[in-house]
Fold:
Amino acid sequence: MGASVDYLHEDQKTGRLSYRRVYPPKLREFIPESPHELKRSLSATSISTPGALDRFQDAAEEYERTVTRARKVASGTFDDLDAPRIAWLAQTYTATLLAQDDDRRVSGEADPDIHGAADDGLRETLAQGDTSKIRDMFAQDAIDLGAAQGWHFDANSSSFAALCWELLKASILANEVRLSVVRTFGTTRGVD
Structure:
């Protein structure tokens, strides 16, 4: 394999490379599912294989985000949840919802009636303005969005409630786009 690179491991039987790095024992309880280590396949037998180094770097970044967030959780510190971060998270959420819908559409698993029903329910929730209900609906998504970036938010803060409101609005926006696609193309299915 050549030069030694920290956290690059070669399977002795297959020669496949992976990124493997042990989490600090004191932080494991603050990482979802309390894993012992991060292990990601590089889908290659050589680090010079196209994409292998990118996958290695992605895994290293994932490790750093996870450890950074675990340290924040362990110490009870939180990341700022200001207006620009909330806006970015809402846009990311909309893009994620649309990408998931595209995947379902291409695979033929999209339900043609779900968008209209979901849209009506989301708009009703927005009109009711029940902050507690909106927080309950979107809290886990907000936490997961932040965790994917290594951020830890105070779920009891008013800014967290504002993020949940924005995720509700992002869901409505995503539904509007999806309904527009259905109206324009007359189907929720992918190209046959």
